[in-house]
Amino acid sequence: MLAFWILVALVAFSAAQTPSGSRTIVEALKTSYNRVDTNGDGKLVPSEFQASLNVADKDHNGKVIFREYIGSSTTADRDLAEKIFNHFDFDNDGHLDDDDLKVAFAQLDVNRDGGVSLAEYLTEGTTLLAILLPSVASTVAPTAAG
């Protein structure tokens, strides 16, 4: 799911809280975008989000609980992972599921064209970064899509 890949991108570089790490964070977000964009058409669609959810859902019940979420990440920064998980758990029911995916997709698809572009994805990633890691976000402009 998109939240999962944003988690991977942000958490992987949470230690890089210096201006020199800012470009690396944008590159990590681009890499995570490309992982979700399985058909490589430059537009993320709901089915690609769903496929990512299925990867993280280890017990295949349609819900990703925090233990599955953190188990799928490459970080030791549990606090940051929990903040990101809670951010995307829009209904606060303790898991990420189709309902959370729909809300996340609607927020990301700013121009409402049915897909999430890299620019939209980078904007959301850097916005989330500004909320959760202000010291890192101050070095990365949301318009860094280029």
From TrEMBL:
Gene3D superfamilies in UniProt:
EF-hand (1.10.238.10)
The molecular function terms in GO held by this entry are: calcium ion binding
The question of whether Signal is a record keyword is answered with yes
Going by the entry's taxonomy, the superkingdom of the source organism is recorded as Eukaryota
The name this protein carries in UniProt is: EF-hand domain-containing protein
Q: Does the keyword Calcium apply?
A: yes
User: Where do the EF-hand domain residues begin and end?
Assistant: 24-59, 76-111
Membrane-traversing stretches: none
For this protein, the record's PROSITE patterns field holds: EF_HAND_1 (PS00018), EF_HAND_2 (PS50222)
Keyword terms: Calcium, Signal
Q: Signal peptide: which range, if any?
A: 1-16
Q: Which SMART domains match?
A: EFh (SM00054)
